[in-house]
Design a protein that fits this description.
Elements: E1 10-21, E2 24-36, E3 41-45, H1 52-59, E4 67-76, E5 79-80, H2 84-93, E6 98-101, H3 105-108, H4 115-127, H5 131-144, H6 150-153, H7 163-175, E7 181-185, H8 193-210, E8 213-218, H9 221-227, E9 230-235, E10 238-244, H10 245-250, H11 255-262, E11 310-312, E12 318-320
Protein backbone atom coordinates (compact mmCIF):
# COMPACT_ATOMS: atom_id res chain seq x y z
CA UNK A 1 0.00 0.00 0.00
CA UNK A 2 1.39 3.42 -0.98
CA UNK A 3 2.27 5.82 1.79
CA UNK A 4 -0.54 8.39 1.94
CA UNK A 5 1.79 10.88 3.61
CA UNK A 6 5.28 10.53 2.05
CA UNK A 7 8.19 12.12 3.87
CA UNK A 8 9.42 15.39 2.32
CA UNK A 9 12.90 15.11 0.87
CA UNK A 10 13.64 18.52 2.41
CA UNK A 11 11.85 20.29 5.22
CA UNK A 12 12.70 23.70 6.67
CA UNK A 13 11.06 24.44 10.02
CA UNK A 14 10.81 27.93 11.51
CA UNK A 15 14.35 28.77 10.39
CA UNK A 16 15.97 31.94 11.74
CA UNK A 17 19.37 33.24 10.60
CA UNK A 18 21.16 36.22 12.14
CA UNK A 19 24.21 38.24 11.10
CA UNK A 20 26.21 40.07 13.76
CA UNK A 21 27.42 43.26 12.08
CA UNK A 22 29.01 46.48 13.32
CA UNK A 23 25.65 48.19 12.84
CA UNK A 24 23.83 45.58 14.93
CA UNK A 25 22.13 42.20 14.61
CA UNK A 26 20.60 41.68 11.15
CA UNK A 27 17.71 39.19 11.15
CA UNK A 28 18.25 37.65 7.72
CA UNK A 29 15.60 34.94 8.08
CA UNK A 30 12.67 35.19 10.48
CA UNK A 31 10.83 31.90 10.86
CA UNK A 32 10.99 30.40 7.35
CA UNK A 33 9.10 27.11 6.89
CA UNK A 34 8.47 25.01 3.77
CA UNK A 35 8.88 21.48 2.45
CA UNK A 36 9.86 19.88 -0.86
CA UNK A 37 8.58 16.45 -1.89
CA UNK A 38 10.59 13.95 -3.99
CA UNK A 39 10.52 14.92 -7.67
CA UNK A 40 8.89 18.29 -6.95
CA UNK A 41 9.93 21.69 -8.29
CA UNK A 42 9.45 24.60 -5.90
CA UNK A 43 10.24 28.30 -6.32
CA UNK A 44 11.29 30.88 -3.75
CA UNK A 45 10.37 34.31 -5.15
CA UNK A 46 10.65 37.86 -3.90
CA UNK A 47 12.60 41.04 -4.45
CA UNK A 48 16.31 41.40 -3.66
CA UNK A 49 17.05 41.19 0.05
CA UNK A 50 13.99 39.10 0.91
CA UNK A 51 16.10 36.16 2.15
CA UNK A 52 15.98 33.75 -0.80
CA UNK A 53 19.72 33.20 -1.18
CA UNK A 54 20.27 33.12 2.60
CA UNK A 55 17.74 30.27 2.76
CA UNK A 56 19.68 28.34 0.11
CA UNK A 57 22.98 28.98 1.87
CA UNK A 58 21.54 27.76 5.16
CA UNK A 59 20.38 24.52 3.52
CA UNK A 60 23.84 24.04 1.98
CA UNK A 61 25.62 24.73 5.26
CA UNK A 62 27.25 27.90 3.92
CA UNK A 63 26.26 30.31 6.69
CA UNK A 64 29.59 31.33 8.17
CA UNK A 65 30.66 34.06 10.56
CA UNK A 66 29.37 36.65 11.24
CA UNK A 67 26.18 34.72 10.43
CA UNK A 68 24.59 31.86 12.34
CA UNK A 69 21.42 29.79 12.43
CA UNK A 70 19.85 31.01 15.66
CA UNK A 71 16.82 28.69 15.75
CA UNK A 72 14.71 26.33 13.69
CA UNK A 73 15.65 23.16 11.88
CA UNK A 74 16.52 21.73 8.45
CA UNK A 75 15.50 18.13 7.85
CA UNK A 76 16.67 15.77 5.10
CA UNK A 77 14.22 12.88 4.66
CA UNK A 78 12.99 13.46 8.20
CA UNK A 79 16.44 13.66 9.83
CA UNK A 80 17.75 16.92 11.27
CA UNK A 81 20.93 18.32 9.71
CA UNK A 82 21.57 20.73 12.59
CA UNK A 83 22.14 18.29 15.45
CA UNK A 84 25.67 17.12 16.23
CA UNK A 85 25.07 13.79 14.46
CA UNK A 86 23.15 15.49 11.68
CA UNK A 87 26.01 17.87 10.95
CA UNK A 88 28.33 14.90 10.36
CA UNK A 89 25.85 13.38 7.92
CA UNK A 90 25.28 16.74 6.23
CA UNK A 91 28.93 16.94 5.24
CA UNK A 92 28.48 13.83 3.11
CA UNK A 93 25.09 14.88 1.72
CA UNK A 94 25.99 18.37 0.55
CA UNK A 95 27.66 18.36 -2.83
CA UNK A 96 26.49 14.81 -3.51
CA UNK A 97 22.82 14.24 -2.62
CA UNK A 98 22.15 17.98 -2.37
CA UNK A 99 23.85 20.32 -4.84
CA UNK A 100 23.57 23.94 -5.85
CA UNK A 101 23.87 26.09 -8.97
CA UNK A 102 25.18 29.46 -7.81
CA UNK A 103 24.03 32.82 -9.10
CA UNK A 104 27.17 34.02 -10.90
CA UNK A 105 29.14 31.25 -12.67
CA UNK A 106 32.10 33.52 -13.44
CA UNK A 107 32.80 34.10 -9.75
CA UNK A 108 31.92 30.51 -8.79
CA UNK A 109 34.42 28.91 -11.19
CA UNK A 110 38.15 29.11 -10.42
CA UNK A 111 39.72 31.12 -13.28
CA UNK A 112 43.03 29.25 -12.82
CA UNK A 113 41.46 25.79 -13.27
CA UNK A 114 40.27 24.22 -16.49
CA UNK A 115 36.64 23.16 -16.80
CA UNK A 116 37.83 19.56 -16.75
CA UNK A 117 39.76 20.10 -13.51
CA UNK A 118 36.58 21.41 -11.85
CA UNK A 119 34.58 18.34 -12.90
CA UNK A 120 37.34 15.85 -12.09
CA UNK A 121 37.79 17.30 -8.59
CA UNK A 122 34.08 16.90 -7.79
CA UNK A 123 33.89 13.37 -9.20
CA UNK A 124 37.02 12.14 -7.42
CA UNK A 125 36.03 13.69 -4.10
CA UNK A 126 32.41 12.54 -3.95
CA UNK A 127 32.33 9.48 -6.23
CA UNK A 128 35.84 8.09 -5.66
CA UNK A 129 36.54 7.75 -9.39
CA UNK A 130 40.01 7.41 -10.84
CA UNK A 131 41.37 10.36 -12.80
CA UNK A 132 40.73 8.67 -16.16
CA UNK A 133 37.19 7.64 -15.26
CA UNK A 134 36.46 11.08 -13.86
CA UNK A 135 37.68 12.66 -17.10
CA UNK A 136 35.45 10.37 -19.16
CA UNK A 137 32.49 11.12 -16.91
CA UNK A 138 33.22 14.85 -17.20
CA UNK A 139 33.01 14.61 -20.98
CA UNK A 140 29.65 12.84 -20.65
CA UNK A 141 28.35 15.56 -18.33
CA UNK A 142 29.35 18.40 -20.66
CA UNK A 143 27.65 16.57 -23.51
CA UNK A 144 24.54 16.03 -21.35
CA UNK A 145 24.18 19.78 -20.71
CA UNK A 146 24.48 20.60 -24.41
CA UNK A 147 28.10 21.75 -24.75
CA UNK A 148 29.56 20.85 -28.16
CA UNK A 149 32.99 19.24 -28.50
CA UNK A 150 33.01 18.32 -24.81
CA UNK A 151 36.37 16.55 -24.88
CA UNK A 152 38.14 19.66 -26.20
CA UNK A 153 36.20 21.91 -23.84
CA UNK A 154 37.51 19.98 -20.83
CA UNK A 155 40.90 21.61 -21.38
CA UNK A 156 39.59 25.17 -21.63
CA UNK A 157 39.31 27.82 -18.93
CA UNK A 158 36.14 29.62 -17.72
CA UNK A 159 37.02 32.87 -19.53
CA UNK A 160 36.92 30.98 -22.83
CA UNK A 161 33.23 30.17 -22.33
CA UNK A 162 30.24 32.43 -22.87
CA UNK A 163 27.89 33.25 -19.98
CA UNK A 164 25.36 30.64 -21.07
CA UNK A 165 28.06 27.98 -21.44
CA UNK A 166 29.47 28.76 -18.00
CA UNK A 167 26.00 28.33 -16.54
CA UNK A 168 25.76 24.95 -18.27
CA UNK A 169 29.10 24.00 -16.71
CA UNK A 170 27.71 24.95 -13.29
CA UNK A 171 24.72 22.69 -13.93
CA UNK A 172 27.05 19.88 -15.04
CA UNK A 173 28.99 20.27 -11.78
CA UNK A 174 25.75 20.25 -9.80
CA UNK A 175 24.44 17.03 -11.37
CA UNK A 176 27.82 15.26 -11.50
CA UNK A 177 27.06 13.09 -8.48
CA UNK A 178 23.42 12.48 -9.51
CA UNK A 179 21.88 14.42 -6.60
CA UNK A 180 18.34 14.05 -5.35
CA UNK A 181 17.88 17.78 -4.71
CA UNK A 182 19.15 20.66 -6.84
CA UNK A 183 19.06 24.26 -5.59
CA UNK A 184 19.27 26.76 -8.44
CA UNK A 185 19.97 30.33 -7.27
CA UNK A 186 18.97 32.75 -10.04
CA UNK A 187 20.33 30.39 -12.75
CA UNK A 188 19.39 32.75 -15.60
CA UNK A 189 20.74 36.02 -14.18
CA UNK A 190 22.55 38.20 -16.78
CA UNK A 191 21.69 35.81 -19.63
CA UNK A 192 19.83 36.93 -22.73
CA UNK A 193 16.28 35.70 -23.28
CA UNK A 194 17.20 32.94 -25.73
CA UNK A 195 19.90 31.48 -23.48
CA UNK A 196 17.55 31.79 -20.47
CA UNK A 197 15.01 29.61 -22.26
CA UNK A 198 17.69 27.03 -23.12
CA UNK A 199 18.92 26.83 -19.51
CA UNK A 200 15.37 26.47 -18.18
CA UNK A 201 14.57 23.77 -20.75
CA UNK A 202 17.73 21.98 -19.66
CA UNK A 203 16.69 22.08 -16.00
CA UNK A 204 13.21 20.79 -16.91
CA UNK A 205 14.69 17.93 -18.96
CA UNK A 206 17.10 16.98 -16.18
CA UNK A 207 14.30 17.09 -13.62
CA UNK A 208 12.28 14.60 -15.67
CA UNK A 209 15.16 12.29 -16.64
CA UNK A 210 16.80 12.18 -13.19
CA UNK A 211 13.72 12.57 -11.00
CA UNK A 212 15.30 15.62 -9.36
CA UNK A 213 13.67 17.74 -6.73
CA UNK A 214 14.44 21.39 -7.51
CA UNK A 215 14.34 24.55 -5.41
CA UNK A 216 14.44 27.46 -7.84
CA UNK A 217 15.32 30.90 -6.49
CA UNK A 218 14.19 33.72 -8.76
CA UNK A 219 12.40 37.05 -9.01
CA UNK A 220 10.99 36.24 -12.47
CA UNK A 221 7.37 35.13 -12.08
CA UNK A 222 7.21 34.06 -15.73
CA UNK A 223 9.91 31.46 -15.09
CA UNK A 224 8.07 30.19 -12.03
CA UNK A 225 4.77 29.82 -13.89
CA UNK A 226 6.38 27.75 -16.62
CA UNK A 227 8.60 25.48 -14.52
CA UNK A 228 7.45 25.13 -10.91
CA UNK A 229 4.66 23.22 -9.19
CA UNK A 230 4.84 25.11 -5.87
CA UNK A 231 5.85 28.64 -4.96
CA UNK A 232 6.69 30.44 -1.72
CA UNK A 233 6.72 34.25 -1.75
CA UNK A 234 9.33 35.81 0.55
CA UNK A 235 9.39 39.30 2.00
CA UNK A 236 11.72 40.76 4.64
CA UNK A 237 13.10 37.38 5.68
CA UNK A 238 9.75 35.58 5.95
CA UNK A 239 7.38 33.64 3.72
CA UNK A 240 4.19 35.66 3.32
CA UNK A 241 2.32 33.34 0.94
CA UNK A 242 2.73 29.79 -0.36
CA UNK A 243 0.83 27.27 -2.43
CA UNK A 244 0.76 25.70 -5.87
CA UNK A 245 1.98 27.98 -8.65
CA UNK A 246 -1.47 28.12 -10.23
CA UNK A 247 -3.16 28.88 -6.90
CA UNK A 248 -0.75 31.66 -5.96
CA UNK A 249 -0.82 33.33 -9.37
CA UNK A 250 -4.52 32.94 -10.11
CA UNK A 251 -5.78 33.61 -6.58
CA UNK A 252 -3.12 35.75 -4.89
CA UNK A 253 -4.14 36.45 -1.28
CA UNK A 254 -1.35 38.64 0.09
CA UNK A 255 -1.10 42.30 -1.05
CA UNK A 256 2.62 41.83 -1.71
CA UNK A 257 1.99 38.84 -3.99
CA UNK A 258 -0.72 40.79 -5.77
CA UNK A 259 1.74 43.66 -6.22
CA UNK A 260 4.42 41.37 -7.67
CA UNK A 261 1.99 39.95 -10.20
CA UNK A 262 0.70 43.41 -11.03
CA UNK A 263 4.23 44.66 -11.74
CA UNK A 264 5.18 41.76 -14.02
CA UNK A 265 5.54 42.91 -17.66
CA UNK A 266 3.29 41.24 -20.23
CA UNK A 267 3.36 41.25 -24.01
CA UNK A 268 -0.35 42.04 -24.14
CA UNK A 269 -0.11 44.93 -21.64
CA UNK A 270 -0.38 48.29 -23.47
CA UNK A 271 0.32 50.56 -20.51
CA UNK A 272 2.95 53.26 -21.09
CA UNK A 273 4.96 52.21 -18.03
CA UNK A 274 5.18 49.36 -15.56
CA UNK A 275 3.33 49.68 -12.27
CA UNK A 276 5.62 49.18 -9.27
CA UNK A 277 5.20 48.73 -5.52
CA UNK A 278 6.03 52.06 -3.88
CA UNK A 279 8.46 52.25 -1.00
CA UNK A 280 11.24 49.91 0.13
CA UNK A 281 11.45 46.82 2.37
CA UNK A 282 12.06 47.50 6.07
CA UNK A 283 15.53 47.30 7.58
CA UNK A 284 16.20 43.86 9.05
CA UNK A 285 18.36 45.53 11.70
CA UNK A 286 15.13 46.68 13.30
CA UNK A 287 12.28 44.78 11.62
CA UNK A 288 8.76 45.91 12.50
CA UNK A 289 6.91 44.04 15.22
CA UNK A 290 3.81 43.77 13.07
CA UNK A 291 3.38 43.01 9.38
CA UNK A 292 6.64 43.78 7.55
CA UNK A 293 4.72 44.95 4.46
CA UNK A 294 2.55 47.41 6.38
CA UNK A 295 4.37 50.60 5.30
CA UNK A 296 3.94 49.71 1.61
CA UNK A 297 0.51 48.10 1.75
CA UNK A 298 -2.45 50.09 0.34
CA UNK A 299 -4.96 48.26 2.56
CA UNK A 300 -3.08 48.28 5.89
CA UNK A 301 -4.88 49.04 9.13
CA UNK A 302 -4.12 49.33 12.85
CA UNK A 303 -4.51 45.56 13.11
CA UNK A 304 -1.32 45.27 11.03
CA UNK A 305 0.65 46.65 13.99
CA UNK A 306 0.59 43.05 15.22
CA UNK A 307 2.28 40.24 13.31
CA UNK A 308 -0.28 38.16 11.40
CA UNK A 309 -0.32 34.41 11.92
CA UNK A 310 0.07 32.06 8.96
CA UNK A 311 -3.35 30.75 7.95
CA UNK A 312 -4.74 28.38 5.33
CA UNK A 313 -6.35 29.81 2.20
CA UNK A 314 -9.54 28.53 0.52
CA UNK A 315 -7.41 27.38 -2.43
CA UNK A 316 -5.23 25.10 -0.29
CA UNK A 317 -2.24 27.40 0.23
CA UNK A 318 -1.21 29.57 3.17
CA UNK A 319 -0.86 33.30 3.77
CA UNK A 320 0.32 35.63 6.53
CA UNK A 321 -2.06 38.57 6.34
CA UNK A 322 -4.87 40.08 8.42
CA UNK A 323 -7.00 40.82 5.36
CA UNK A 324 -6.28 38.09 2.78
CA UNK A 325 -8.15 38.08 -0.55
CA UNK A 326 -8.83 41.84 -0.44
CA UNK A 327 -7.98 43.47 -3.79
CA UNK A 328 -5.12 45.67 -2.66
CA UNK A 329 -4.43 47.39 -5.95
CA UNK A 330 -6.75 49.46 -8.10
CA UNK A 331 -5.47 48.07 -11.41
CA UNK A 332 -5.20 44.27 -11.12
CA UNK A 333 -3.30 42.45 -13.84
CA UNK A 334 -3.57 38.97 -15.25
CA UNK A 335 -1.31 36.34 -13.75
CA UNK A 336 1.52 34.65 -15.65
CA UNK A 337 -0.63 31.50 -15.93
CA UNK A 338 -3.45 33.35 -17.62
CA UNK A 339 -5.77 33.86 -14.64
CA UNK A 340 -6.36 37.09 -12.76
CA UNK A 341 -5.12 38.17 -9.36
CA UNK A 342 -7.95 39.10 -7.03
Amino acid sequence: MANAHPTPILEVRDLCVEFDTMAGLVQGLRGVSFSVMPGETMALVGESGSGKSVTAQAIMGLIGLPGRISSGDILWKGQSLLTREGQKAAGKLRGKSVSMVFQDPMTSLNPLMTIGAHLIEVLRRHMGLSKDKAFARGVELLDAVGITEPKRRMGQYPHEFSGGMRQRVMIALAIACEPELLIADEPTTALDVTIQAQVLDLLADLQKSMGLSIVLITHDLGIVAGLCEKVAVMYAGSIVEAGTAKTVFDHAEHPYTQGLIRSTPRLDDRRARLISIDGAPPSLLHPPKGCAFQSRCPVSSRQCDEKPARQATPEGGSVSCWTPSVAAWSEPSESPTGGQAR
